[in-house]
């Protein structure tokens, strides 16, 4: 066996396995991370939409409400920014994305339950289904943080 043959053998052994469709098997766990991060970003967009709604619609309701609407918009914007940071961390295999994402989904499930009690059925279903879906995705082993790099 020549040196070039040994080099080619080592190179082919170091490649990731390929499935029947020619896609790397290592890419499959990454798809789940991308889906989880995408859903976190979707939640952030929905929060920003709610913040805009609060500023545009609640400020005209009654005295004192504009201040509450502005405060609500600021809080929702901060949570949306944290969700985007969690999505980025999830894609980078950091610890923050999974831990914050799971905590946020538990909070969202509580909000969904409150919406059911208030007879806001359509938003309650959307919030609850999204929270449960993201919660399940974030609990999958493929979304666990990288233990090699301890920075998050």
From TrEMBL:
Organism phylogeny: Bacteria, Bacillati, Actinomycetota, Actinomycetes, Micrococcales
Which stretches does the entry tag as region Disordered?
Answer: 1-25
Chain segments annotated as transmembrane? 34-56, 68-91, 98-116, 122-139
Supply the alphabetized keyword list.
Membrane, Transmembrane, Transmembrane helix
Top-level lineage group = Bacteria
Q: What is this protein called?
A: Uncharacterized protein
């Amino acid at each position: 066996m020549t040196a070039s043959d040994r080099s080619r053998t080592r190179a082919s052994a170091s490649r990731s396995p390929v499935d029947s469709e020619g896609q790397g098997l290592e890419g499959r766990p990454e798809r789940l991370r991308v889906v989880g991060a995408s859903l976190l970003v979707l939640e952030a967009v929905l929060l920003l939409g709610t913040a805009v709604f609060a500023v545009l619609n609640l400020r005209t309701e009654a005295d004192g409400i504009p201040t509450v609407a502005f405060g609500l918009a600021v809080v929702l914007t901060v949570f949306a920014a944290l969700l985007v940071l969690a999505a980025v961390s999830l894609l980078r295999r950091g610890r923050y994305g999974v831990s914050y994402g799971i905590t946020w989904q538990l909070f969202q499930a509580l909000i969904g339950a409150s919406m059911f009690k208030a007879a806001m059925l359509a938003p309650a279903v959307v919030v609850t289904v999204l929270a449960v879906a993201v919660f399940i995705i974030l609990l999958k082993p493929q979304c666990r943080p990288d233990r090699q790099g301890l920075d998050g």
